[in-house]
Design goal:
By secondary structure, the protein is α/β, with parallel strands linked by helices. Helix content is about 40%, strand content about 15%. The protein folds into 2 domains: about 30-115, Rossmann fold; about 140-260, 3-Layer(aba) Sandwich (Rossmann fold). The model has no long low-confidence stretch (mean pLDDT about 95).
């Protein structure tokens, strides 16, 4: 039976280190602060906002909520972002996406100062990931994947890794981060021929395509380590991953659950980035 790589254990370890860093900053008169910028009242945004606030408060990071109406114009959003850029007491900014269709998301995200881009959404932050440069921060979910591997002592160096998914949110950044750790990386997608044959040859599989139970018993191989990033709603309303957990656990060596895996670590990574930003800025 496969080992379950639980995210809770990883998040707790991250939080423990973050608390120490927060205490050191506060001893020097600095209160690390996250600003959450939201446009409108989407239920999923509001729910995530509450979860981020709880995690931040748990480690001593202050949170400010900036909420614009759903019909806010581009100028109003840009001014809000510029005000946060200029506010030295704000160290990190989380802007919820997607934005309403009336707003240009590319313009908005690139108006954000990369030094405060703790969720890795600006072009400068992504360029830093691809160049291996210390510009901005990597997106939180790919970072959470790397934290999971590190916590459980899984070194990707020299291993064959298949990333199923090529989005800028997870697939491409995590592929670059793994290359930076000396893994041999193959990125697969909907046009990949013989997808499952490619997946079966991997030592490590990162599933981040957003398709419920895409990978099961017939698509995986013994000895593999599987990081499931997918979050999908099943017909019965439950959350499931891109991997059929019950089927896969009888085949692979280790895998993350959904829920309770990568997603659990992501918020802790976000808060960690805020504290790192506060340390850099001060």
């Amino acid at each position: 039976m496969a080992r379950t790589l639980k995210g809770t254990e990883v998040a707790e370890a991250l939080n423990s280190e973050t608390i120490k860093e927060v205490e050191a900053l506060k001893a020097g008169g600095v209160e690390p602060t996250l600003a959450i910028l939201r446009v409108g009242e989407r239920a999923d945004d509001v729910s995530y906002e509450r979860g981020v606030a709880r995690r931040a408060e748990k480690v001593g990071v202050a949170v400010r909520n900036i909420v614009l109406p759903a019909d806010a114009g581009q100028d109003a959003l840009t001014k809000a972002i510029e005000a946060l850029n200029a506010d030295s007491s704000v160290h990190g900014v989380l802007m919820f996406r997607p934005l309403p269709p009336s707003l240009d998301e590319g313009v908005a995200r690139n108006a954000l100062d990369p030094a405060k881009d703790v969720d890795g959404i600006t072009d400068a932050s992504l360029a830093g990931v691809f160049a291996g440069a210390n510009t901005g921060y990597a997106p939180c979910t790919p970072s959470a994947c790397m934290e999971l591997l590190d916590h459980y002592g899984i070194d990707p160096a020299g291993r064959s890794v298949v990333v199923v998914g090529r989005s800028l949110v997870v697939g491409k950044p995590v592929a670059m981060m793994l290359l930076g750790r000396n893994a041999t990386v193959t990125v697969c997608h909907s046009r990949t021929k013989e997808l499952f044959s490619v997946v079966r040859e991997a030592d490590i599989v990162i599933a981040c395509v957003g398709c419920a139970h895409l990978l099961g018993t017939d698509h995986l191989a013994p000895g593999q380590i599987v990081i499931d990033v997918g979050i999908n709603v099943a017909d019965d309303g439950t959350l499931v991953g891109d991997v059929d957990f019950e089927a896969a656990r009888g085949v692979v060596d280790a895998l993350t659950p959904v829920p309770g895996g990568v997603g659990t670590v992501t918020t802790s990574v976000l808060v960690k980035h805020v504290v790192e930003a506060a340390m850099r800025q001060t």
